[in-house]
Amino acid sequence: MANLINDETIEYVGILAKLELSGEEKEAAKKSMGEMLDYIDKLNELDTTGVEPMSHVFPVQNVFREDVVTNGDRSGSMLQNAPDARDSMFVVPKTFD
Amino acid sequence: MEKEHLLSLSATALGAAIKAGKTTAVEAMEAVFGRIGEREDINHCYITVDKDAALEKAAKIQKRIEAGELTGPLAGVPVAVKDNLCTEGMLTTCASRILENFVPTYSAEAVINLEKAGAVLIGKTNMDEFAMGSTTETSYYGATRNPHAPEHVPGGSSGGSAAAVASGECFFALGSDTGGSIRQPASYCGIVGMKPTYGTVSRYGLVAYGSSLDQIGPLAKTVEDCAAVLEAIASHDEKDSTSVRREDTDFTSGLINDVKGMRIGIPGDYFGEGLDPEVREAVLQAAELLKAQGAVVEEFDLSLVEYAIPTYYTIAAAEASSNLERFDGIKYGYRAEDAEGLHQMYKKTRSGGFGPEVKRRIMLGSFVLSSGYYDAYYLKALKVKAMMKKAFDRAFEKYDLILGPVAPTTAPKLGESLSDPMKMYLGDIYTISANLAGLPGISVPCGRDGKGLPIGLQLMGDCFQEKKLIRAAYTFEQSRGEGEK
Hints:
The structure holds 2 protein chains of 2 kinds. By secondary structure, chain A is mainly alpha-helical. Chain A contains 3 helices and 2 strands, in the order αααββ. Chain A has a domain at 2-45: Glu-tRNAGln amidotransferase C subunit, N-terminal domain (Histone, subunit A). Chain B has an 11-stranded mixed beta sheet with strand order 1-3-2-4-6-5-10-11-9-7-8, with helices on both faces. In chain B, helix 3 packs antiparallel against helix 4 (51-66), helix 6 packs parallel to helix 7 and helix 10 (308-323) crosses helix 12 (356-369).
């Protein structure tokens, strides 16, 4: 299964994960992901036919509440954490030309 | 009170001494900062401490204790909090560069609960970056050292919390446990650490790693402290949709020195290849001791143990890749300079802000969730998780508790694990099942190896059976005696 991880896969995963990897990092990622997936393939030894996938150990139900604002206005202090802010808004780099 | 004696007290003993007027919250905090001054250069347990704020808060709390407003067992007791729990007004980095300047505008529910109980925050402890690691070496801010042997790791990911408790740089600490991150460092540092049943402590304000696995819990000097801290931080919280409403959070009522008739199962599959002989010996001796106290101890086959690690790393990586999408350089934290356009900025920020282990897990997670591989990897892991949960259900029909080691070895040397991530992952084999199945688990010191490094005993219980765990752990601790730690 490790041959799943070729240069193309690493490029694709880089796009999904929004990561820009150096040539060296790509090689290391190829190797370590290949090793991990080989190891994960061990799960194929188990017959899981008919087993329901379990995402949570307890049944999770949606928690509803009235649509009423309970938290105060903290936009000022929240924007203080922003790398760049102006006029109560987050400033981002150019998104289109 | 004399400083060395004061620092040797457990959290609840200190709370009682403050209540009785034998010492004060301020004196305790000053003693802690004295110890930090002596040891922190070597240990590096903390990422952030705020001495002035801590002493000021301690003085306020002391007044409220004297006024009779605060009467709980933790009132006035200094606490350290892992740096992935949000603390209003105090830097919260998750040991990552990407949050190097993040100051939360709110506190985690568990932290608020501790504040209500009168505990006083010292600072924020070091950890593996985003809790991804088992040694506290993946921290962007440098490694923490094991107070018992500085050339060894303290374990992880709550390594700073565990080392701070062991070295007297706090009286107790909070950590988080996604695959053993409370229990394993507790074991390596010779203290008590407990992961409660999933949903017992609100995860609101805990920076998420693997949301279906993460739980907050105490690291402390004694089982009694653990029970008292858990009692203080457990709460139902509408802000965490996975929070469980429980009426039985009076955990200190489980502090009973008696295990007569308690049925304890030892999974034979926990004692196979890879387990260090000295660890094995110490854990089996602990089982003998509980047997001598009247517990019914027998060996059984848990099954599926060898599948726990691949299942865990698939699920944890998948959840991590999704949870860590929020770090994009816009709302908080580090942003890369000199990026052309928005997407370039995202990529440069994340590539420069995350360390190698975090990137590794985000990439693996992105892959196992990607179309074409989702069924083969992610869904397969969720099915195996269901099978493992069933195996535990069967075990708990026969046994009150499961007993085993916490980790296959004692603390490795600094640098040994980073060079071989696979080896580091294998070290989680005995702890991760409790996270996959949502079970409570506790790590209690049960001896030392030839090098003098602490060994931990692990007890696991069925969901919501913390009191049984506390009872057995307390009985073990009491019958073992103080001098043998």
